[in-house]
Amino acid sequence: MGVHVASQSPSKSTIIKDRTKILIYSFIFILLIFECESSSSKDENRERDALLMFKMSLKNAEAVLRNWNNPPRLPCPRLGSSRTTPPWRGVICLNGNVCGLQLDCLKLSGDIDVDSLLELDKLRTLSLMDNKFEGAMPKFRKLGGTLKSLCISKNNYSGNIDDDAFLGMSSLKRLDIADNRFSGEVPTSLASSMRLLELRIENNRFVGTIPEFPPTLVKFNASNNQLQGRIPPSLCDITDTSAFSGNKDLCGPPLESKCDESGSSSSPNQIVSKANENMSILHVISVIISCLLAIATLVMVYLQLDMKRDGEKDGVTVATTPKGDGKLTFFRDNYGCFDLQDLLRASAEVLGSGNFGSCYKATLMDGHCVVVKRYIHMTNCGKDEFHHHMRTLGNLSHPNLLPLIAYYYRPQEKLLVYKFVHNGSLSKQLHGDRTNEKKAGGLNWPTRLTIIKGVAKGMVYLYKKLPNLLVAHGNLKSSNVLLDKWMQPLLMDYTLLPVVNVEQAHNLMAAFKAPAFCKQGRIDKNLDVWSLGILILETMTSQKLPSTHGSELERWVETIEREKVFDKEMGGTENAQAQMTMLLEIGLKCCKVDEVEKRPELIEVANKIQQLDEKDI
Ligand SMILES: Nc1ncnc2c1ncn2[C@@H]1O[C@H](COP(=O)(O)OP(=O)(O)OP(=O)(O)O)[C@@H](O)[C@H]1O
C-alpha cells in the first residue's frame, strides 16, 4: 500500500502564509522590545541627568566620581544586557533603577542639590557619611515619604534643625546625624516617622529634652550632647545606658538617677555641683541629706496612710505579706525598680473593673506610671502552672502587644503589672467611659484602619508564637485594645485562657460569645476570628455591642449587615468609602453565623486588612 506523502506536505500557499505570520509576529515582537527599551531608556536618561545635576552641586566630585559621565555609560547596568557594566561609583541599583546612593568617605563638600534627587523616584537610601559637608542641614524633607534610610554622620553640619525638618518622611527607618555640630533642640517631627527603627544623634550639641519617639525605635544613641530632663517612656526599654551618657542632666529610667518634680535629675552629685558656689560641699550635703530624709519620711507616712485609705475604699486588699514573700517577678528591667511595697505605697487610681477584676493606675515614687490588674477567676490554677504560663507571656514581644512587666502570685491573689497606656481603650474612644458618656474624640478613617491593622498584626503574632493554643487571645474586644500616644493599638488581656477557671472563661471571655461555641460548643481558632470580626464592625459603626450573648449579638451583626451605616465621624472621601466598605465586608465575613466552615482563617483576614489603604484621597 503506497503512502500518499504528497497529500500531507504543505502547499506552497500555506508555506507563504506561515512565513508571513512569522514575519508579522517578529515585527510586533521587535516593536514591543523597542517600546520597552525606549520607555526604560527614558527612565535611565532621567536618572542619569538627575545624578549629573547632583554631582554638579558637589565639590571634589570630579576627582572621585570620574565614572559618572555621559553616555554610553549609564548609572545602572541596563536590565537584561549581556555585558555586565558596573554601576556608577556609589550608586546602588535595583532592577535597573537607582535605589540608593552611598557616597561615604569621599571628602565631598558643597551645597547638596536635593531637588535634583527628586527625579530619582526609586531612591530609598542616601548615605553621605564621613565627608566634609558643612552649614545647615539640607532640606531632605523634600525627598518625602519614600526615603527609608538617611545617613549624614561625621560631617561638619551645624546650627539648629527646623522642628518640622522630618515631617512627612513617613517611611524613614534609619536616621544617622551623629558626629556633626548640630545645636538647638532635637526636632519633634522625628516623632512623626512612625517606622523609625534606628536613630543616632550622638556627639552633637543638642539641648533641651528628648522628645517622645514612636514605639518602633529599637536602636537609639544620644550620648555626648547637652540634653536634660526626664527620658521619655518610649526610650525606657533601651538597655544600653551609654546611649544617654555624656549629657547635661538626663534622668529617669533606664538611668539610675531619679527625676525630681520639675523633671530634672535629683542625683546628689548634681545638686551639690549647683550649690557649690557659696557653701562648703560638706555643709551642703549634710543640709540636703537631712532635708531629703525629713521629706521622705513625711511622704512615706502620708502615702502609707493614704494607700491604706484608698485600699479600703477601692477594695485593694493585697495585704502586706510576711517577710520574704510577696515578691513581684519582673520580665522587663526598664520600668524602674519597684516591689510590691512600692506599689502599695504608690498613689492609686481605679481605671475600671471588668469581668476578670479591677485595674489600677499606680504612680510610683519616681514618677513612673504602671497599671496593676488584679485578676479573680484564676483560683484553680496551680503555682507551677501559673509561673510557667507567666514566663510564656513575659517572653512575648510585639509592637501591638501590651508588654507584661511583672506579676505577683498568691493562691488567692494574682496581680499582673503592665505599662500604662495614655489614650485608654478603643472602647473609650468609640463610646466614652463610665464617667464620661461623651467619646474621647472622633476617630477618623485612617486612624481606625491603622488600629485594625495593628490589632490584626498582634493577633497573627500570637498565633505564630503559640501554635499549640487553639484560642491564642480569647478575650479580644474594644476595651482590651489600648491606644498609645500615637494611637497605635496594644492588645491586652491576651492568652489568659490557660490560667483562667474554665467555667468563667466560657461564660465571660469575648471569644466564647461566638455562635460556634454558644450553639455547638466548638472551640477552635475561629473563635478569635469571630471576635476580630465583631471588633471591626464595632470600630466602623461605633455602635455598642449588646451586653448579652448569643442571639442578641447575632441580630446585632445582621442589623449591621443590612444597614451598613458607618460612623459619620470617620469622614472620608469617595476612595475612602470604598475601602471602608471593604473593611466592613471583611468584618462581616468573620462573623458569618451559619457558615462556620466558610469563615476565613486569621492569616487570610489579616492579609486582606493589610492591603487596605488608609490614604484619604
Ligand atoms: N495598661 C493600661 N493603660 C491604660 N488604661 C488601661 C490599662 N489597662 C486597662 N486600662 C483601662 O482600664 C479599664 C478597665 O480594664 P479591665 O481590663 O479591668 O476591664 P475590661 O477590659 O472592660 O474587662 P475584662 O476584665 O473583661 O477584660 C479599661 O477599659 C481601660 O480603659
TrEMBL record:
Major subcellular location class:
membrane
The protein depicted here goes by the name Pollen receptor-like kinase 1
Its keywords, alphabetically, are: ATP-binding, Leucine-rich repeat, Membrane, Nucleotide-binding, Repeat, Transmembrane, Transmembrane helix
Taxonomically, the superkingdom here is Eukaryota
Q: Which Pfam families match?
A: LRR_1, LRR_8, LRRNT_2, PK_Tyr_Ser-Thr
Q: Which SUPFAM superfamilies match?
A: L domain-like, Protein kinase-like (PK-like)
Segments passing through the bilayer? 281-303
The residues that hold ATP are 373
* Residue span, Protein kinase domain: 345-612
Where is the protein found, in the record's own terms? Membrane
